[in-house]
Amino acid sequence: ALANYAKDLTKNIDGLLKEFGKNRKHMSEAQAKSLADFVKGIADYVKNLTKDVGTMMNGFKKEHREMSEELKEKLSKDVKGIQAAVKNIVNDAQTLVGEYRSDMAKARRTWRGMAAGLAKSRETGERVAPAEEAKEKKVGKKRGRKKGRK
0.85 exceeded by the pTM? Predict the structure, then answer.
């Protein structure tokens, strides 16, 4: 009975060891498969993340390029507008200065005419209209700036 018990015990232990070995092999295969799937998942995630970041960066570069071009165009238009405004201001100022010169020349002629009429009136004792005198007397040296000088 003891021999049969030892034989059965050995047989049971061999069966348990074979079953443990088989279970360990299945668990090892399952764990290796699970680890491979996990690593593949991480690799796919990193690959997709790299692709997405690259796409985003390209999008940012494109948008930056477009904004830069728009800004260049806007600045160019603004500079041209400022240049035109300055040119208009300079032209208007030159016109105004020309009008002032003309008015001053006219005033100078009138003043000279009045001075000549007053002098004649003092000499002769008669009264002479300043407008008539200015029309008659258009002589005298021009004074003032020479043309072309600024």
Answer: no
